[in-house]
Structure formats: C-alpha cells, structure tokens
Design a protein that fits this description.
It is built from 18 helices and no strands. The protein has 432 residues and is mostly helical. It has three domains: 39 residues, no CATH class; 133 residues, no CATH class; 203 residues, no CATH class. Helix 12 packs antiparallel against helix 17.
C-alpha cells in the first residue's frame, strides 16, 4: 500500500495536476460552468411545460388538482417558456464554441472580441451548411458538441498564430483611431484566412464523405460515448475519480474531460423529451445530472450521509467538523468534510470514500436501464439538494425516493468505518 501511495504521489499526482491546468481543459470546464445558469433555465422551462401526469385520466383528489393546476400553468406560459427552452439547450454547441473562444482569449490575455467571432463563425460554417449549401441548425444542439470543441480550439490557435506572426497586418496610422477599429481592421486578413480555410475544409469533407464534419465527428466519437454511457464505464470512472481524490487530486481532473460527453447526452435527452419521447425511454442514462445528483450526493464520495453521521458524533472534533460541513453538504459542497475530517489520506475511511459513489451509480443505472426510474432530461444544477434535483431532472417521484434510499445506503456503508475512526478520535481527545 505504501509503495502504491508513493507511486501515486510521485508519478500520477504531478501529471494529473499539470493536466488540470491544461489550457484547453480549463477553457472547456469554465465554459460549461458559465453555461450552467443557461442550461438550468432551459431545463426549468421544459419541466414547467411538461406535467408528468395527465390529469384527465386521474380520479378526483389532491393529485389530480395539482396536475390540473400544473397543466393550466403550462398552457398559459407554454409559448413564452418554449422560446426560453429553444434558445438554451438546443443551441448548446454554439454557446460552447463562443465560450471556448472567450476563455482561450482570456488565457492569452487577448483584449479583443475577435477570437469569439472566429470560433463562433467557424463553428457555424462547419455545423450549419449542407452539401447543397443550405442552412441547417440541427447540429447546433448537443449533436454538434464535439465539432464545436474541435473547431473552436483549432481555429482559435490558427488565428492566434497568424496574429503573432503579423500575417497581413494592416496598420492604421493616427492617434484618433479607436482601438476596436484598429484591432478589427488590422487583423482583417487573419480573420479572412481562417474563415476561408474552414469553409474550404468543410467543402472538401462534404465531397469526400457526403456528410459534414458533425456527422463525421459523431461517427468517430460514438465508441467513446458508448463506453461512457455504460454501467462498467460508470463504475470504473467513479472508482478512478475517488481514488485520485483520496490522494488529493481534485475530481475536476477527470470530470472536466467528461463534461462534453455528459452534456452531449443530456442535450440529446432534452431534445428527445421535448419531441415527445417518454422520460423512461430517452436515449442516454449517464448525463451531467446522473453524475452530480444521483451519484455524488453531498459531493464527490457521496458524503451527505457521512456529514449527518459527523453531525451526531460523540467526538468533539468530528462533531465540530459535522456542524461546519453539514449545510454545505446539502448543496453538494463537501470540501470542509474532505479536508476537515479528513477523508484524504485517511486509511480508515478510504474504502467507503472510494466505493460508495460507484455503488450509487450502479444502483441508479440499473433503476434507469430497467425503466424503474425515469432518465434525466433536465438539469437542476450541481448544487441543488439532491432529492429535489432528482425530481426536477426526471419529473419522476420515484427518482426522489431513489436518492433518499441511496443516502440511507451510503450512511450504512460509511457507518462501521466511521465508528472505528470516531473511536480513535475519542481516545485521542481523552488522552489530551
């Protein structure tokens, strides 16, 4: 165990930390974090306009009245909220292209908006043009997400290279020229080169394959998507994430790289649900809310149950940590518990810390794959209280009950290890 620990610390940790600071992963992570409010608004719009039950088929009672009232609200606000939904989730890939351009420009301290125009325009050329030259917005949805990432990063770096080499730089003389005009006119040639190159490559891809870049990217990435949306993929990913966390390597090292797959699956589910597909029959199981609202209940390691145990501990030290960490844990923020208990480098708590979250994923995957619980099509946000978030994500009361059951299971698994650790702390406190 010591040899393995030394290997992680000396070989894996430095590489993982460098990876977490990698500019493209940071830009991607920051983009998705910035878009969470937009996706949340789109999700709530879809939820509000989609009552989970048809009140006309129900017997008189409280539930029928609730569903009837919900339907009235949906009918009244439907046209308005539909607009909100249509400009959020269905335009996910376009927003990601814009976000990558912005955060990469910020990374390089480029005081200009042109990189955002470059990445957005390049994505539009790649994703919206048909072989006949007609416009189509199909790939502005989650289906174009991988194209948005590839095109945005590539075109940004191409543009940056041209600017740094001052290719075709037009110098506007005079002190009275506004900086925005000087920058836009000055870099007109690099912008033209980038867009012409993208359009040419797009035309070549159409001629060679008969399809555009998004269809090609979907074909290339489909094996990876299949692995991610798989029960064994869920278990392995969760174990690796939590093993890294135990050694002090933040979960974002892996989860930020998984964001495109999770959000792509979520976007596909949202589109399918809006088109009338039943929530239990949506195309994907593993999505962003699946990970954060069903697996990481209370934060990475599914520590909400542990926070409750700490709150009622007989150890003064552990109880103090419980008081500090319990409220944040309700909203999936568990750093006070991870660093305060601590869970990192704690051999007693290692087994439950690593295994509880994969177990949550296994149970949830089984429940959704068999149709016992509806699949996720909305995203209440990562820091929403998990049982409520699960209900919003699926519009299925059974999802709420599932999460409550998972919290109890997590607490039971943590309990024997917690008792051993608590006994050790009580002994230390009595000796002091």
């Amino acid at each position: 165990m010591q040899r393995f620990s030394n290997f992680i610390e000396k070989k894996i940790a430095p590489t993982a930390n460098r990876l977490s600071r990698q500019k493209y992963l940071q830009a991607l992570q920051n983009t998705f974090l910035a878009l969470v409010p937009l996706f949340t608004l789109g999700s709530f719009s879809l939820v509000i306009t989609s009552p989970p039950m048809d009140y006309t088929t129900m017997e008189a009672g409280v539930l029928r009245s609730i569903m009837q009232g919900w339907q009235m609200i949906a009918d009244a606000l439907g046209p308005i909220l539909n607009y909100v939904f249509l400009v959020t989730m269905p335009l996910m890939s376009l927003y990601v292209a814009i976000g990558i351009g912005y955060f990469l420009a910020k990374h390089y301290k480029m005081q200009t908006i042109i990189p955002i125009f470059i990445t957005a325009a390049s994505f539009v050329i790649s994703a919206s043009m048909s072989a006949e030259g007609n416009l189509s917005f199909t790939y502005f949805e989650a289906t174009g997400l991988f194209t948005a990432i590839l095109v945005s990063i590539t075109t940004f770096e191409f543009y940056r290279l041209l600017v740094e080499k001052k290719v075709g730089r037009i110098e506007l003389g005079g002190s009275g020229v506004p900086p925005a005009l000087s920058d836009s006119i000055g870099n007109l040639v690099p912008v033209l080169i980038v867009l012409i190159t993208v359009a040419t490559l797009n035309n070549v891809i159409f001629r060679l394959t008969g399809n555009g870049l998004p269809a090609l990217m979907t074909l290339i990435m489909s094996p990876i998507v299949a692995v991610v949306d798989n029960v064994w993929g869920v278990i392995i990913l969760a174990v690796v994430v939590m093993l890294f966390w135990w050694f002090g390597i933040h979960d974002s090292v892996i989860t930020s790289a998984l964001d495109p797959f999770f959000y792509s699956n979520l976007g596909a589910n949202a589109t399918a649900f809006a088109a009338g597909t039943a929530a239990a029959s949506l195309p994907f199981i593993v999505t962003t809310p699946f990970w954060w609202n069903f697996m990481a209940i209370g934060g990475s390691g599914a520590t909400l149950g542990l926070a409750f145990l700490a709150l009622r501990s007989k150890s003064k030290q552990i109880k103090a940590i419980g008081k500090i960490s319990f409220i944040p844990s309700l909203f999936n923020i568990n750093e006070p518990l991870i660093f305060g208990l601590p869970l990192m480098y704690n051999p007693i708590m290692m087994i439950p810390f690593i295994l509880v979250m994969p177990l949550n994923g296994l149970i949830t995957y089984f429940a959704m794959s068999t149709g016992l619980v509806a699949r996720t099509f909305a995203y209440a946000s990562w820091n929403m209280f998990s049982p409520i978030a699960a209900l919003i994500d699926t519009l299925d009361i059974k999802a709420l009950l599932l999460v409550v059951g998972l919290i109890i299971i997590d607490m039971i698994i943590y309990l024997p290890f917690f008792k051993v650790y608590e006994k050790q702390k009580i002994k230390e406190e009595s000796e002091n």
